[in-house]
Specification:
This protein is mainly alpha-helical. The protein contains eight helices and three strands, in the order H-H-H-E-E-H-H-H-E-H-H.
């Protein structure tokens, strides 16, 4: 009976144990390794989704670049409009080329005249003057300069030159020489159309403007502050041994007032009297004479 009871209790305990689930049967999971997270100080980490820079977080370099681009565009627009001045001055100051016609053709009234070359030279001189004036004005406006400002200066000067060329040709004498000759009649002198034969003259304004602006910036532009020199803490003569502290030498430093003067030129007598090296032939153990 006792053995039968013990067997029943063992069967009951095994059944109860089988009825309880173990930790690895699905109700409890093993701990997982967390994914790698970028450190807050990692410069290559991507910003979180949905994040935007605030208005005050824009880098100062970007703000300065935008300001320089706006100034360059303004400079280009103003110089392009100034091309009207170039065209009107060229139309007013350029010499006229006289022509004359008969019943067969149109001829130069003065076959040896230099009016055509004079028109090109007048355009180039006016462009040169405008280049100097525009460079000085831009430099006085913005002494700091910058690549964007110089680019705006060159672009505006080039567009102004092209506009001045077009204005002079447009408002000058008509380019239809035959119709003009028929209109005025035979033997009547009339002006030839205003033309720019030297096409390279359109580059005079931008080249002069850039050269003058560069010279002004190099001569009168702001300078970067020079770095302060770094002086060493202790100055020693080249080739001399570095000073040794008294604590490192293991002995007390001698008093400068009682230190002996080396050499025979020491004040107060000879080297032997000053406590230096004894004279040659003297007994080092002999007592020194007293004064």
């Amino acid at each position: 009976m006792a053995a039968h009871a013990r067997g029943a209790r063992a069967v009951g305990r095994s059944g109860a144990a089988s009825g309880r689930a173990a930790w690895h049967d699905g109700t409890v999971t093993a701990p997982l390794t967390p994914p790698d997270r970028p450190q807050p100080s990692d410069p290559w980490r991507s910003p979180p989704e949905g994040s935007h820079l605030a208005a005050g977080d824009v880098p100062a370099a970007h703000v300065e670049t935008r300001a320089e681009v706006r100034q360059a565009l303004l400079t280009a627009v103003v110089l392009t409009v100034a091309g009207l001045v170039l065209g009107l001055l060229w139309l007013w100051l350029a010499p006229r080329i006289p022509l004359v016609s008969d019943d067969t053709a149109v001829y130069l009234k003065d076959s040896e005249g230099e009016e055509a070359i004079g028109a090109d030279g007048t355009y180039a001189l006016i462009a040169l003057g405008l280049g100097v004036v525009s460079a000085v004005a831009v430099f006085l406006w913005r002494r700091r300069g910058g690549i964007w400002l110089v680019a705006g200066l060159a672009l505006g000067a080039l567009l102004g030159s092209l506009l001045g060329w077009g204005v002079g040709v447009w408002f000058g004498p008509t380019s239809d020489v035959v119709a003009h000759a028929k209109q005025v009649g035979e033997g009547v002198t009339f002006d030839a159309p205003l033309e720019l034969n030297a096409k390279g003259a359109v580059l005079v304004w931008p080249i002069v403007a850039m050269a003058v602006h560069l010279a002004l910036t190099a001569a009168f532009g702001p300078r970067d502050p020079e770095p302060e020199p770094e002086w060493p803490g202790h100055w020693t003569m080249p080739g001399a041994a570095p000073p040794v502290a008294a604590a490192d030498s293991g002995a007390d430093a001698p008093d400068p007032a009682t230190r002996a003067w080396p050499g025979p030129d020491a004040p107060g007598g000879s080297a032997a009297e000053a406590g230096g090296r004894p004279e040659k032939g003297a007994d080092p153990a002999a007592p020194r004479p007293k004064d």
